[in-house]
């Protein structure tokens, strides 16, 4: 297994939910963190919590729907850390309902955040990874990017786009020494749904966010000649714990 000690890890959407849990988990492995989100207050709090445990962590406010914001954030990260070892594209937003009832501005926001911002983050870090001849990019999508849905088709479309881009990017950069992986989890017990205006608490299909972060860490620690390029995780209803 590879060590994550002193690896520079960029995590988008790191101020709450899965992103914050991933940050804490890879910090336990000794990683250095560059955390990105829109809310400076939440980023500051997350940074303080991580630094209190001895983790090297810097935060960067960034709106993934704004190209200049992405470029500025990544440039600042490169200036502060020089290297970029791992990019975890975690940020995303949710919306559901009939296609005809989706506000057009919500569709634009959804796709800018879930896929366009993700692509632009990759554009910004790949040149650095190429110079290093090493790096890992983990794009966190959703089972909605594999399975169709009558209830959240517009959202599902954005996650299918993540899958298609991830599979193609992997082929594009593998000869540069860069691993690209797609991760497809089920719904989790985070604030994602509530922040999007949909009350979903303790639904039976939700998985534990800490378990998901553990799987992600396992993927990142695989030997350098192993690429877990496409990992799907589903809720198992036969468990006893």
UniProtKB/TrEMBL annotation:
Family annotation (InterPro entries): NAD(P)-bd_dom_sf, Sc_DH/Rdtase_CS, SDR_fam
UniProt xrefs under Pfam families: adh_short
Keywords noted in UniProt: Oxidoreductase
GO CC term (a single one): membrane
Domain of life according to the entry: Bacteria
Entry keyword Oxidoreductase: yes
SUPFAM superfamilies: NAD(P)-binding Rossmann-fold domains
Gene Ontology terms for molecular function: oxidoreductase activity, acting on the CH-OH group of donors, NAD or NADP as acceptor
Family: Belongs to the short-chain dehydrogenases/reductases (SDR) family.
Name the UniProt record assigns to this protein: SDR family oxidoreductase
């Amino acid at each position: 297994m590879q060590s994550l000690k002193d690896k520079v890890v960029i995590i988008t959407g790191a101020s709450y939910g899965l992103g914050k849990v991933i940050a804490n988990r890879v910090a336990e492995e000794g990683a250095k963190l560059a955390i990105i989100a829109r809310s400076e207050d939440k980023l500051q709090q997350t940074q303080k919590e991580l630094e209190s445990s001895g983790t090297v962590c810097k935060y960067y406010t960034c709106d993934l729907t704004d190209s200049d914001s992405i470029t500025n954030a990544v440039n600042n990260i490169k200036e502060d850390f020089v290297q970029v070892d791992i990019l975890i594209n975690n940020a995303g937003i949710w919306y559901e309902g009939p296609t005809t009832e989706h506000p057009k501005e919500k569709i634009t926001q959804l796709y800018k955040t879930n896929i366009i911002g993700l692509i632009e983050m990759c554009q910004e870090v790949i040149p650095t990874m190429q110079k290093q001849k090493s790096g890992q990019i983990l794009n966190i999508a959703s089972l909605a990017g594999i399975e169709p849905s009558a209830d959240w088709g517009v959202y599902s479309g954005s996650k299918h786009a993540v899958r298609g881009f991830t599979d193609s990017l992997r082929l594009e950069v593998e000869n540069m020494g860069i691993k690209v992986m797609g991760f497809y989890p089920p719904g989790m017990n985070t604030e994602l749904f509530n922040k999007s205006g949909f009350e979903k608490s303790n639904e039976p299909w939700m998985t534990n966010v800490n378990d998901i972060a553990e799987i992600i860490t396992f993927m990142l620690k695989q030997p350098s000649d192993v690429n877990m390029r496409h990992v799907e995780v589903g809720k198992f209803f036969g468990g006893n714990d």
